[in-house]
Amino acid sequence: MGDWEIISNEEVDELRRMVEDTGVQNLPNYISKKAKQWQEVEVHIAVLGETYVGKSTFINQLRRVEEWDDTFAPVGLGDTTLEPTAYENPYNKNMVFWDLPGVGTLKFSKDESYFRTINIERYDFFIIMSDQCFSENDAWLAREIRKRGKPFFFVRSKLDEDFKSAEHDGQSIDKAVPRIYKSCADNLRKANFREPNIFIISNYNHEIGQFDDLMIAIFHSLPDLKKEAMILSIGPLTHNIIREKKKTLHSRVFKIAVISAGVAAIPVPGLDVIADLAIIAHEIHFYMSEFGLDEESLKHLCKKTKTKYDQITESLKHSKSLLTEKNIIRTLFMKIVKTQAAEQVAGRFAKYIPIIGSIVSSGVAYGACVKFLRSEIDLLEQDAHTLIDVVIDKNKKL
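Above: the chain sequence. Below: its structure as tokens.
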């Protein structure tokens, strides 16, 4: 699809069927439910590995929690996991990480009883984690998971520690990742994995290693709704994750624009436009949260990096005004409405949504909503990238 073609033919057909079945009057509620559908999708993530390999840290990072949070998964206690332990994502209760017991012990032998214990059918994908070369137990688990048609990923953790060791020993850091990969791959090939999916990561420094590659591989292994739920539920940890969030948020714009320009909305004073600014404002605050630019997320970051709030916000060109100016969203939206571009956008969508005139009060309002929301996503994405760079620079100085 082109730059402005953000509604697919499948979605158009779905809307037509909806109108044919129940009429135009129910369409705004239907679209509203579709926009929230990702929150109702359950995603269950299994994380396996021996003690001290970094499972809890990995889980905490993706759940966006720190050691002072009540839901923090304990790290470095050395206790062996005896039962599947669930950790909900506090930003989406339907996304659950499971710390699973290892296999090949007196309690959990390598047979079918292990999979009954962990309830293997529950999980959408498996992270098999190690801080060394993967063991025969890891390989056995992967083979059994593959037999059941489930996605799995070998994750070699603690790359930052490997870098420190390489520096201490006078070895090249650049050669560390290829050396680790070869060692892990050779070990897994002995266990009949010809092309193993291995990702070498640091749980703390996501800009080194293959953390980004791992996340993209996970996203692409999931069906559409679960993929959307995964992308919108984890934090903006890397530049590539931010880009994935942008794509996903852009795909929501059509739905939100229809709702905000719907027949139940009220006129914008001084303009011949009908749009629900409360819906638009709520959506933009949602974008800010997704990109880690809302007040709560920024204060969380300040505490983590020991940085003053004003120092963080000073670097954010667009978000700073959204955080400090009460009526800024209304002002920015009205500027968009007044431009010819809004009418052009409305015209571009006419061929994709033949029924649009039946459900919104103004094509200009619809076009303005689309243009405004897409513009806000792009501006917030830029701030999110800036914030990542600020954090990287700050961590270098700690």
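The two ends are 44 Å apart (CA to CA).
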